[in-house]
Structure formats: C-alpha cells, structure tokens
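Bumping with the actual sequence this time:
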Amino acid sequence: MNKIFTFLFLVLTFNLSAQSQLQFDKKYVQCEDKWVAFPADSTGVYNFGFIYIDETAGLTLEYGDTFKIDEKGKFITEKKVKTNSMKYRLQPNNNLVALIPESKLKELYVDKVPDWLKIYKHNENSITRLFRWGFLYNGWNECEKALEYLEKANKIDPDLKGLRVELAYSYNCLGRYQDAITVLQKALELNPLDAYTNKELIYAEIKNGNLDNARVVCLKVFKECQDKTYNPENAYNILHAFFLKKDVANFKSWLAESDTYLIGDPKFGSSVEQMKKEFGQ
C-alpha cells in the first residue's frame, strides 16, 4: 500500500512540476520570436519550435525537436545539434502553446535568439516592414499588437498609402472610435471616394453614436462611389443601429433609402425581414 502511495505521489509531483514550467495559455500570434512547446502526446513527449514571422509567408514555425521532462523537471532532448530545417506555416487559430522558460533553453541546446533569425530582421524598423507587420496582426485580430507597429510607421510617414485606414481598423477593433474617425477623415481628404475607407468611417460613426453622420456618409457613398462592394454592409449597419435604438421612424426612413441594397441580399436580407416583422411592418 505504501509503495502504491509513493508511486502516486511521485507521479503527481512530476505532473505538477511539468505543469508549473509549461503553461499552455498562448495563441500562435502571441508568440512572435519565441520558443514554444506543444501539448505532450500520450507518452509525455513534447514537440517544440521557434515561431517567427516571414514577411511573405506570414506566421511560421521553425521546428526544433522533441523533449521529455524527467522526474526532476529537467528537459531532455535527444538531438543536441540541429542538422536540418523544417518550417511549418501556421494558420492563426485558438490552439494554445506554452512559452518555454529561458532557463530551459540550454537544456534543449538552443539559443534564445537563433542566429538564422537575423535574415528575417532585415530593415525591421523600415516603414514598409512596420506597415506589413501591422497589417498582418490586424488580419489575425491582434489589433493592440498591430497598433504598436502602425503607430511607429505613422511617426515616420503618416501619408504612406493605406496606413491611415489600417490604423483606423485597429482603432475600431479596440473601441477607439473617435481616433478612427479622426484618421479616416484625414484619409478621405486625399481619396474621398475610396469605398473601404468610407466603410470604416461609417462603422466608426455608428459605434460612436453619430448615426446622422453615418447616414450622410453612406448616402454619399451610394451616390458617388463606383465601388458598390460594401453598400449592403453599410446600409445594414445603420439600419440595425436604428433597430437597436427602437427608433421606428428613422428605421422606416432609412429602409426606404437603402432597400435597393438590402432587400433580397443573401447575407442581410433575412435579418432585415426579421427586424421589419418586429416593428410590425
């Protein structure tokens, strides 16, 4: 009985030791330039590697090897010298990995910053690279991280093509709607009929409670923009805002002005019909 108890105690202690060193609480996109471990398989073997961003390919894993954790908490790997390179393109998702503690990197025979990483750090403070990194992080919905790069780019040249609207995307994502409005209005001074810029402005005005402003911008877009891509989305967002406010009069009025883009639309049509029913139309 004592032997069984001792065995169970050692197993529990080992598991707690491993768990205390590896916390699987990070998404891929939160691990740029970090060594990470993936959850162990049924035999207690962990895969590990280094996550970085390739400007062309995006989020990438440079595969390291495998390791186990012994009863003393030491990381044990068979390969001491890496002889080949295996890269995996990572799609941002909700899979969680663990950051490997710096104190354990020597046990895995890897450097905190791999020598080969310098190839991917060329011109890392250039405006084009800062913009590209911001664009990538926005695409992964890591808007706060994106903003770090985009605001640095903005200090270098705020007139860089596409920068203001990318900044606005981050601001909208983070609920900083007035900041988005300010930067988008400046962008539209230079290109007043850009459909995507106007879409972001309409969204920001709605979220900031300025429905009259959003309506004016949207009507201008309907009339003057050749690109009609976002018209259904713009029209729906305003209509839905009136619906949420239970503003029946403006709901009916706006529907009459925008029904060309909404009635029968495959994405928004059914929602529009449901709102109309709730308002007794």
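The tokens above came from a reply further down the thread. Confidence is low (pLDDT under 50) at residues 1-18.
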